[in-house]
């Protein structure tokens, strides 16, 4: 009798294992319903990395529906969205140390709260605590330029120093401006090489003046550097920059003289683009004298 019971139990166990095995084999290999993705973007000298999952609209009402107003949202699906900065970064005007942060939001109809939190091991909002918030921002949502079926994070509007994170889903978009330390580092290097190390090279003076011109920094200082570059090496591109800085400084008469010299040198070297733009500036500035 004991042997019969033992054999029966064995047959039942084998049968259950067979059923489980059949069930496993019957499961389909399907893609993630909310695909995960990672994006990398350099802003200035800083690497910005975003890791998140992308749920779809699937005919649902998103904000005020699937994502309730006034509730903490993981800003994606599955695990919490993680943003990493390789260097300190100004986020909407506030400096954030380098490191990894979870990105949460609290959507509302008229404004959102954007949160950077130091806890990065959570699934969804699990483990979130307000005491770990590093930063909270109020950001106004805007209608998106197109319909986004999948939740999308982009880093766009890049300059040497700045960029912007955009959150898009359905018909809603949110912009979070970023500023890197690039301007501080570049400016510090310029001043160190010119004022401390006393590097007396025309190319350095030109690059320094061009950086100040492009970033609308101290015009007087930029003009001084551009003039020094021209004195050391009167190249057509150096003269062209000097002309633009003179015009920005309001000295249109001197700007025309420098632009004419630049145009003549560019013509001799068959750099037609500089000839054309110099002549355009000359016509414009002569009217302002």
From TrEMBL:
Read off the InterPro entries from this record: DUF2911, TPR-like_helical_dom_sf
Q: Which domain of life is it from?
A: Bacteria
Task: Check the UniProt entry and state the signal peptide residues, or none.
Answer: 1-26
| The entry's keywords | Signal
Q: What is this protein called?
A: DUF2911 domain-containing protein
